[in-house]
């Protein structure tokens, strides 16, 4: 995938604030900004749906976009309400972020603040094969957490 099509919905994107971009040469995720008219006081255990200021169309069925929290903000309690957002290749609408304050104190989000990141990843869509049994493995059908037992 060489290009990602975006349509600007908030005129501040690309003028006052940069287009979604990678903050460093080796960054995996593009920073997304809170397109707010005024600071948002996000109280503990509350969720707000906010715009990233653009719509997008991936157009490649072999790619999806994942919306993820930014590490530093996540540590302070600001995560995504759906934990990880998934944007399908055929979606052409506005990008919105469900911001959840899971912390103990209010978080103030400023207009234009980088609040999430978007990572483009390959998609594997296998055909389903129904079987009677699986090939044997060392673990087999041992339950959740079984590899941590001595």
UniProtKB/TrEMBL annotation:
- Enzyme class per UniProt: hydrolase
Q: What is the lineage of its organism?
A: Bacteria, Pseudomonadati, Pseudomonadota, Acidithiobacillia, Acidithiobacillales
Primary gene name: dut
Per its Swiss-Prot or TrEMBL entry, what cofactor is needed? Mg(2+)
Indicate yes or no for the key word Metal-binding: yes
Look up the EC number in the record and give it: 3.6.1.23
Provide the GO biological process annotations: dUMP biosynthetic process; dUTP catabolic process
Which residues belong to any copy of the dUTPase-like domain?
A: 17-148
Q: What is this protein called?
A: Deoxyuridine 5'-triphosphate nucleotidohydrolase
Organism from which the protein derives: Acidithiobacillus marinus
What is this protein for, i.e. what is its function?
A: This enzyme is involved in nucleotide metabolism: it produces dUMP, the immediate precursor of thymidine nucleotides and it decreases the intracellular concentration of dUTP so that uracil cannot be incorporated into DNA.
Instruction: Give the record's pathway.
Output: Pyrimidine metabolism; dUMP biosynthesis; dUMP from dCTP (dUTP route): step 2/2
From the UniProt record, list the reaction(s) this protein catalyses.
Answer: dUTP + H2O = dUMP + diphosphate + H(+)
- List where this protein forms a coiled coil: none
Which InterPro entries does the record cross-reference, listed alphabetically? dUTPase (IPR008181), dUTPase-like (IPR029054), dUTPase-like_sf (IPR036157), dUTPase_trimeric (IPR033704)
Belongs to which family? Belongs to the dUTPase family.
Q: Which UniProt keywords apply?
A: Hydrolase, Magnesium, Metal-binding, Nucleotide metabolism
- Provide the residue positions that the database annotates as binding substrate: 70-72, 82, 86-88
One of its Pfam families is dUTPase
As one GO molecular function, the record gives:
magnesium ion binding
The superkingdom of the source organism is Bacteria
Checking Gene3D superfamilies in the record gives: 2.70.40.10
């Amino acid at each position: 995938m060489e290009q990602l099509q975006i349509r600007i919905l908030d005129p501040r994107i690309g003028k006052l604030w940069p287009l979604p971009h990678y903050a460093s040469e080796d960054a995996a995720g593009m920073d997304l900004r809170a397109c707010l008219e005024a600071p948002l006081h996000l109280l503990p255990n509350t969720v707000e749906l906010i715009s990233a200021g653009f719509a997008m169309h991936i157009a490649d069925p072999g790619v999806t976009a994942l919306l993820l929290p930014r590490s530093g903000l996540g540590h302070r309690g600001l995560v995504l309400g759906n934990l990880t957002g998934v944007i399908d290749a055929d979606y052409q609408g506005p990008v919105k972020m469900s911001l959840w304050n899971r912390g103990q104190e209010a978080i103030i989000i400023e207009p234009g603040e980088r609040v999430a990141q978007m990572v483009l990843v390959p998609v594997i869509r296998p055909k389903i094969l129904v079987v009677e049994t699986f090939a044997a493995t060392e673990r087999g059908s041992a339950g959740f957490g079984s590899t941590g037992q001595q």
